[in-house]
Amino acid sequence: MIILENFKMPNVDLEAVMRYLTETGKRTHQLWMDDETLAFVARGREYRSEFHINASYEIQYSLKGAQDLMYRTPEGEVKVAHMPEGSVFYQPPFLPHSPRFAPDSFQFIIERVRKPGEIDKFHWFCPNCDNFIHEETFYVDDYRKDPVSRAYDNYFNSLEFRTCKKCGTVAPGRD
């Protein structure tokens, strides 16, 4: 039996959240997080170049605009799952993925809360030869801490991290 005492059912105005993100320039807004589930809205991921790897599934719904979800197969091949506005996508755990969508596009995302010891990884590859060039790791206990931005700050602020050891190409920094 489920006890609903002190339970507050989230009722979210997604249009208002999208306006808030647009007006503030922020990229994510956490809607709720309980012991099992994390939900947030993300705005624009046009700058993403890394592949995120986590132990949780992700359910992504294209609220506004389309998304191209780049992902890597177990063999390392890069593929694209195109998600038009209004579509939903289930992404299995541990799939290296890189969501890419315009600044005026929005995704509603539901994930499983990370268990103690589960570490999110962010992998970058050389834009010239596809050699692995850098990894950032974070324990994602609260999406309001914006781990993606923290990983990117570390990566962009280091010429060493962005330089391919195989071919010498320097991956682009912040524009």
UniProtKB/TrEMBL annotation:
<dbReference type="InterPro" id="IPR014710">
    <property type="entry name" value="RmlC-like_jellyroll"/>
</dbReference>
<dbReference type="Pfam" id="PF06052">
    <property type="entry name" value="3-HAO"/>
</dbReference>
<comment type="function">
    <text>Catalyzes the oxidative ring opening of 3-hydroxyanthranilate to 2-amino-3-carboxymuconate semialdehyde, which spontaneously cyclizes to quinolinate.</text>
</comment>
<protein>
    <submittedName>
        <fullName>4-amino-3-hydroxybenzoate 2,3-dioxygenase</fullName>
    </submittedName>
</protein>
<keyword id="KW-0560">Oxidoreductase</keyword>
<keyword id="KW-0408">Iron</keyword>
<dbReference type="GO" id="GO:0005506">
    <property type="term" value="F:iron ion binding"/>
</dbReference>
<keyword id="KW-0223">Dioxygenase</keyword>
<keyword id="KW-0662">Pyridine nucleotide biosynthesis</keyword>
<keyword id="KW-0479">Metal-binding</keyword>
<dbReference type="GO" id="GO:0000334">
    <property type="term" value="F:3-hydroxyanthranilate 3,4-dioxygenase activity"/>
</dbReference>
<dbReference type="GO" id="GO:0019363">
    <property type="term" value="P:pyridine nucleotide biosynthetic process"/>
</dbReference>
<dbReference type="InterPro" id="IPR010329">
    <property type="entry name" value="3hydroanth_dOase"/>
</dbReference>
<dbReference type="InterPro" id="IPR011051">
    <property type="entry name" value="RmlC_Cupin_sf"/>
</dbReference>
